[in-house]
Design a protein that fits this description.
The chain contains six helices and six strands. It is of the alpha/beta class and about 200 residues long. It has two domains: about 90 residues, no CATH class; about 110 residues, Zincin-like. The longest helix has 26 residues.
């Protein structure tokens, strides 16, 4: 959702340290390998310019470093997206923000109601709001409010938030029964919660 409005980070062909940036099959970012005497483990870091920095132990190998990187390519993708969204959240132009809010008003209520029908929930009303600290909320009367910024999240993460609020229709708390309901509705909820927590876009 909203792929055409996401801000993109630059990925220059050079690097500031560790030699020229290179491409590694299976990794969607430029990479530099830096060997350090004191390093005991392979370490990944995404630099501010979008280049992945791989620290290589002194006696490590380039081949092993590449295998380590490829095994963690999902982290690289998540971290890149997290930074894109964080940047977009603070630097969205007014006209882009207005377009996103309009898209959220069109798409989020219909998606929520679709999920409600699939899982047997009755929603009294849906509203789109400009919440600063919450992705969504559910009132005792069955009214669900959604943050328009949800339109910028990966679809699976957005669905988790919608299902989270639907679960509150049955359990208006965060009890063990509530989390069992969330797990039933959204098997990938733990991964989505980790993504939201790592994104630091909002408290959730």
């Amino acid at each position: 959702m909203a792929d055409d409005t996401q801000l993109r980070l630059p990925y220059p062909s050079g690097s500031r340290a560790g030699g020229a940036a290179v491409s590694v099959p299976g990794v969607s970012a430029a990479v530099v390998f830096v060997r350090q005497r004191r390093a005991r483990h392979y370490i990944l870091r995404l630099r501010d310019d979008g280049v992945v920095r791989v620290t290589v132990p002194w006696h490590g190998s380039r081949a092993e470093a590449e295998r380590f990187l490829v095994s963690r390519r999902e982290w690289v993708g998540r971290e890149r997206l997290r930074r894109q969204l964080a940047q977009a959240a603070t630097h969205v132009a007014p006209e882009v923000r207005a377009r996103l809010r309009a898209q959220a008003a069109r798409e989020l209520p219909s998606r929520l109601l679709e999920l409600a029908r699939v899982h047997g929930f009755a929603v009294a009303a849906v509203s789109i709001r400009n919440q600063r600290t919450r992705w969504g909320s559910c009132s005792a009367s069955g009214r669900i409010s959604l943050n328009w910024r949800l339109i910028q999240l990966p679809p699976a993460v957005c669905d988790y938030v919608l299902l989270h609020e639907l679960a509150h229709l049955r359990h208006p708390n965060h009890s063990a029964r509530f989390w069992r309901e969330v797990a039933r509705l959204c098997p990938h909820h733990a991964e989505a919660r980790r993504w939201l927590s790592a994104s630091k876009l909002l408290a959730c």
